[in-house]
Amino acid sequence: MRVGIEVGGTFTDLVAVERGEVRVVKVPSTPRSPDIGAFNALEVAGIAPGAVTDLVHGSTVATNAILERRGAEIAFIATAGFRDILFMQRHDRRQIYDLHYRKPVPPVRRRDCFEVVERIGSGGEVLLALDEETVRRDLIPALRAGGYGAVAICLLSAYAEPVHEKRLRAIIADAIPGVRIACSHEVAPEFREFERASTTALSAYVQPVIDGYLDRFEAALGKAGFSGHFSVMQSNGGRIPAVAMRSNAISALLSGPAAGVVGAIRQAGRSERGNLITFDMGGTSTDVALVRDGLPSLAPETEVDGLPIRTPVLDINTVGAGGGSLVWIDDGGMLRVGPRSAGADPGPACYGRGGTQPTVTDAHVVRGTIRPDAFLGGGMKLDANAAHKAFESIAGRLGMNVREAAAAAIRLAVANIVRAIQLVSTERGRDPRDYALLPFGGAGPLLAAEIAEELGIREILVPPNPGVISALGLLSADYAMAQGVTRRMPLDNDAPGALLAEHGRFREAAGRAFASMGLEGALEHTLEVDMRFVGQAFEIPVAVDPGHLPSLTAADLGDRFAEAHQRVYLHGGEPGRTVELVGLRFGVRHPLEALPEVRERASNLSRPEAAEVTTGGRVVAARLADAASLLEGEAVIGPALVEGYSSTTWVPPGWRIARDGAGNMLMRKEG
Amino acid sequence: MLDPVEYAILSQSLIAAAREMGVKLIRSAYSTILREARDGSAALLDAQGNTVAQAELIPMQLGSIGRIFQPCAAMFPPETLEEGDFLVINDPYSGGQHLQDVFFFHPIFFEGQVIGFAASVAHHLDIGGGSPGLNASAQDLYAEGIIIPPMKVNMQRDWHGGGFQRLLRANVRVPQQTMGDFDAQIAANNVGALRVQELAKRYGVAKVTETMAALQDYSETRMRAAIREVPDGTYKGEAFLDDDGLGSGPLPVRATVTVRGDSIEVDFAGTAPQVRTNVNAPFASVISSAVSCLKGALTSPDIPFNDGSLRPITVKAPKGSLLNPNHPAPVRARMISVSRAWNAVMAAVAQAAPEKAIAQGYDTTTAFCLSYLGEKGWSVYLEVYGGGYGAGFGNDGCDAVDNPLSNCSNTPVEAMDQDFSFFRVTDYSLRMDSCGAGQWRGGAGFQRSYEILTDNAQVAHYSDRFEGHAAGLFGGGPGASGSCEILRDGEVIRLRSKDAFQLRRGDVVTIRLGGGGGYGDPALRPPEAMRRDAEDGIVSAERAAAWAAG
Q: ipTM of the predicted structure?
């Protein structure tokens, strides 16, 4: 049996697949010890760990260790003169008019930052040899005295030549056996010392936490008789065996949203859709991502708690617009939705837990798209009166009735998500109309049609069980590794050969790494080349098929770069500008066999024929349908609500929805 | 009539479009000053040239972008513009700031009408003039670079290989970078125009135009609401520049801030007369300074800055003073004077609203330039430094960060190592005991050292507070001063705060940036905060003991 367990902030989701049968379970998370929630999920699903052959796990342990500052006490080592890199940061302020601005706080104290005498130039040449004597005399005793849980090393230009970092690591490992050491040339071998140092320090900071968590998890699994493969999700959208995470904790950050995108891609692939805009709307936020040809794009950098992390992550844009987002009027009289949220407690007013401020979920209740009797398959009754009451004051101030105010809130929530989608599409020169919208998360399918209308998208794919797509994504994730390296060179006739050689080296290393993880068989490679005009600082990734590398010419590369520059910046640079290659982004995947089809979890709710919904300034009678009993080929014409266990799909007038042959529901605008 | 929801959606879309302009400006730029330091800004203006939304990058450039547009519009009314036209200005005496900040305004056409303007400004690495990057000894504006009065330029005719572009190219020392940065400005403006056109298509021109007006009213309303909370009265503040760079001694900047109901008047009467060196500040920059200070101190940071925020505020400065000089006084280092203007306004605010004010930070823009003429032409490195930030009620000042009026990032050492072979950075660290004492301490200053790897290089810089200090507030202590020194053959050569110097191979140039002033009595500082700073080496044990003793 194959099992995916995704630990989220509120719920822990489990998806289990055995001989074509799929089980779906949602249990409350246990934030103090997330592993308890995971084992609870197994228990509720009635799964004996001994019967599991393949277990894939995703959790927020790494991210939370940073947000809650529960990582290890670490030491940071830099080139002499630069121990303050982590405190200097980039010298800018994120809010320019905030007079009480505070910088993001690094995961290490200044007193724990040390220096070594050495210097390497940008071409990798040793300008000043590592002074090993002072390392042994001064640094080693200080590290011993500090009793650190891990050590982070980031020396200048180590991305170009790691010889000093390697030597330093060897000396420390020799003197202090067993101490965890993160080196910048391995964690993030790219130029710009602050971002590389920040990534390395955070990696060292979370590594002991991840190790402890996985130790506990594996021990409990072993005790329960588990003897299958245990792997964990990474932020790049692939998984790795848990044992490999022991040397690369940074890749566990933000793996939850990545799993959702992977699940969405798999599910859409069944309906033969590869160009997607995914949006995952949960309680407090919405994650959006753009997928081309079934492949998500990777961003080279992300941020947690204001600190940069230079590691390949699925390019996901998050906005503070979820079901729990508060609806309010600011002191300039403008109606706003989010980013503050009612959270899980008290939650939306309609939850009846004492919340009085209106939220997006309350707006759905007021306008009729969430029926109080049908929430979570009827498992949780909502208080419609409380939702109405919560909107009274806002309605009064806007001179509207309560239904109009709720409709206004919904339109604003839609607008917030539309802007988030524009950020990953139009801003990068991609037209959203060329993509299908794939909503998931509990609140996604309720807004999908209205978001599609705003963006001109004509096709929406609603997967079965939209509330547990992330757990499905774990199960369907390939084993994968991603790596960015700085390799600066002019775009000339030697460049294609250099690319081929560089990729050959990576291919070999990846092959060895996968073999050592016990993964045999063919690997799929991807390659992006970061290029720019000479003089620019920000690169544009240009995808190159590694299979075409032997016949690639400099002219091909130049044309592709010019096209990409034109797409993003609306010009291709003046003629005569020279182009350079700056970095390479390697990706490699060990493809997984296909998963059986996932079906909607059935609910036994009895429902009336129709319900009143406010839309487009009027009240209409929306047909009610059960998602699980909507069979292949059957269509429902809007206005309609298609209710499932974990989510409801709103089909506005002018739209129709039908179950396709792959188990998804396809919603299209008519006419 | 605009409904409240469409208004909310459209206004947020305009703000998002301005933000995207800023991102594209920086990301397609070529010079380190624009692409790494991010010394540039972008905004959307309405058809009359009032700022509607801006990318929040550099307060100094943004505060008065609408005012800078007006002289251009007066000469080239929007209705006379044709597709492909855009307006350019950098002349401080026609409404601009300093010559390095070149403003581009692109009309946004929709169905044949100009419905707004996309504006961008970038600090250009070199714009000609008497010395690369910055001319510390300029006696007048002509020595500071090429002067661009309000100009109408056509993309097809004058740019792509056309006369105006060739004229500019011929007058700058690093054309690859400067001309590339102009292209980045054009890219940013094109993106802004495209987004506004998309909105007009989706919602109709009338609604977009109405939103542009309503968004300004909105900022004005929130600004006025915040001003009403400040007690009426007349408050005075002052601050001092070290000198004019020629040994003049301290130069006062004085502000009289009058709060009446929901409006404020700031008058800089009593400020020193203009000087012969480049610290004079054109009036457009003085408006930015005063308004940025009041917005930061009195209002919530989430109020969008546009021309509506300027309406409740009137700014005056005597003609012929440091803050409103007569043509053709040099103005390159205007940031020094406008920072003191900011300090003077803040000192007045401190009397009116003590908990909203902050102590003085180092608040000195230090422009630091290394240049070298080699066989392949000029190599110019320019960096803009801040220092320690001023402490506020409940908040220690930020360490090593740019000043309130600026927001430049540092250039990564590894980027310098790649781009410049005539020097190498050898030290970049926080300065111990540079922060002002206080219940909340000021931000720590920092230093950077450059080892010079060739003969015939030169350093030029302007700074301030090499003599003076960032003052503390309500019992807080002052921050440390700055300095610039050259270590040559074991001897230390001290430079003045505004200076230039020929360098030799082996010289080590060290620039030290001062700290911010503290807020409140240092004896009230919690012992655990004292201990933390001492253990982290921000404050020495001796200084910590002195603070505790009060």
A: 0.92
